[in-house]
Amino acid sequence: MSISNHKAPLLDLFSSEFKGKAYSFYTRLRENEPVYRFMLPNGQIAWLITQYEDAQAALKDNRFIKNPHTLLSQEQMNKLIPMLERDLLINNMALSDPPDHTRLRNLVQKAFTPKMIKELRGRIQEITDTLLDEIQDKGKMNVIDEFAFPLPIIVIFEMLGIPTKDRDQFREWSNVIIEAITIDIPEKMQEALPKIQSLIKYIGHLIEERRKDPTEDLVSALIQAETEGKKLTENELYSMIFLLIIAGYETTVNLIGNGVLALLQHPEQLEKLKSNPELISSAIEEILRFYGPVELATSRWAGEDVLLHEKMIRKGDMIVVALASANRDETQFKNPDLFDITRKNNCHLAFGMGIHYCLGAPLARLEGQIALLTLLRRMPNLRLNTDAETLKWRPTFVMRGLIELPVVF
Ligand code: HEM
User: What are the chain's domains?
Assistant: First the structure.
């Protein structure tokens, strides 16, 4: 991988191998070329922003926008998301700008406040214990499939009112979809299309059922907003449900998985946490900084020309804020490659910043805390059941998450 700005190299940011060496690559970029021009597989020119200060500023800079429709031609848009169904998936707050963003976020904000989330503590603990009851006597498990995946998906499904028995089906759909829609590789898109259609059909059935028979869940509340106040169009309703499902578990699976990995790779930190469980809040913040689940997903579009580090980011170019790089920036964090669960002033950017700051942060933090503490209490002899070289990261642009994490206890 050369660091050159003359041409735009096609960066292999997607493979499992890249994830293994990503942090040293980011370090070189921060030092040598902090705003780095590269090409995405669909031919789109993008700029990787790697320093902490620039990342923070870019996330708050309203010259960088989320919805590119005013910047790109129909042909370019089709190249970007070449599918008929896109209107049903992408009309969500994460891909919109004010005033749409403000309206959409306000509709669900109430359900995700720290106070509302606190009320879920008992239920999250119950789900965690039930999952571990099923595993306890086995002596080994794959943390990702058996623990880190079911916990957040059951929680978000219960909030939305989706039957939890359908969770494996969702996982299969979303694994393919998330890769396809975030990197726009045409072949991946073709592969994903039938899954996208199945998912849309499923959401359609759910909406129909709740229209006939409303309950206390979030989907019913959103349908009410759609029918009553014209606050939400039908496309936005589908897109909101899709976003909440995907954002609600894809990331938290990796917070739990990466957290277990980081602790098992640093036995002295693990012991410290076991004997001082009150360190759990700062341990979660350090996991978010050290192995943040969202590595590069935070893309935006330049709404006008922007000059940064002597590089001209042209109107219509994409920028990708490398949160994983910002979170290891030595100008912000002392010994950034050190995993230290007692780290102070840990102002990491793992949940983003500005108006798109993660809506689900209080929920993710609570799930992460309960999951890790309960796991360590109930399985105090937890050990990795594989060597570091055989660990495989998921080949996705967006996330940092393991394909599997075998442990014994
Ligand atoms: C936005 C990370 C869990 C819902 C974001 C963003 C990041 C992020 C970095 C900002 C993206 C940007 O600026 O482009 C994470 C991480 C999580 C997590 C690391 C787990 C550890 C959750 C959960 C939910 C959620 C549990 C619950 C539904 C959302 C939503 C947005 C968002 C709806 C869009 C907010 C907006 O555009 O205003 N998340 N997230 N996230 N997250 Fe999370």
Answer: 16-408 (1.10.630.10)
